[in-house]
Amino acid sequence: MTVSANDSAADSKSSLRGLTPLEAVLFDVDGTLCDSDPLHHHAFQVMLQEIGFNGGVPIDEQFFIDNIAGKHNDDIARILFPDDIPRGLKFTDDKEAMFRKLASEQLAAIDGLYRLRKWIEDQGLKRAAVTNAPRANAELMISRLGLSDFFQAVVVGSECEHAKPHPDPYLKALDLLKASNEHAIIFEDSPSGIKAGVSAGVPVIGLTTRNPEHLLMQAKPTFLIKNYDDPKLWAVLEELNNKRT
């Protein structure tokens, strides 16, 4: 059963029955902990325009969603530079350096993130960040958000056999935490990430941070929320908490 962002809390609660006892919570980073996609879009837009990509016409948000958002840099390099992959890989490395400069100045947490952090800590749950971003990016964002001591593991797609949308990064995180996929939940904001979580056998709560809801629903999340203050999320967490006590 999948539930959209506009469906009821009752539907969301019923979709997670049997999850208890909850052991672990796994988070993507970009777009899930922080609204970083506009920074990525800006960096790609500026740098691609500088080299005359697309005839010098800046890439728009739809191009970014279709070809870049949530994807690993190896895949982005192949999409943008299909005839010169080494150039594409060098380009994405340079773009990440520009992103880190922007992120160090402009990064902000998704609404309600620190409220959810407290709930997770109060429940004594295990937690990991799982991302397709380069480790330098992930560690910068996590540090800027004040979450370095919160996460017990940070798993990076490039350090796994396969990055998202394959399940490997989430399976690795569960293994590191010694947690079961039957007693964990994932927060994700991209179709690629949702597919990875679903393939790992874990219920995925999708965030409608930037990606269109219909694209997220195609990846089969358990349900969608707007942010971590969404009443639908807290109705589910309250029920999970009641079942633990």
Written description of the protein model:
The protein is of the alpha/beta class and 245 residues long. 48% of the residues lie in helices and 11% in strands. The chain contains eleven helices and six strands. It has helices at residues 9-15, 37-50, 61-67, 73-80, 85-106, 113-123, 135-144, 168-177, 191-199, 213-218, 231-244, and strands at 24-27, 126-131, 153-156, 184-188, 204-207, 223-225. Strands 3-2-1-4-5-6 form a six-stranded parallel beta sheet, sandwiched between helices. The longest helix is centred in the middle third of the chain and has 22 residues, at 85-106. The two termini are 26 Å apart.
In one word, what is the shape? Answer: globular
Count of helices?
11
Low-confidence stretches: none
Order of helices and strands: HEHHHHHEHEHEHEHEH
Largest sheet: 6 strands, parallel
Average of per-residue pLDDT values: 92
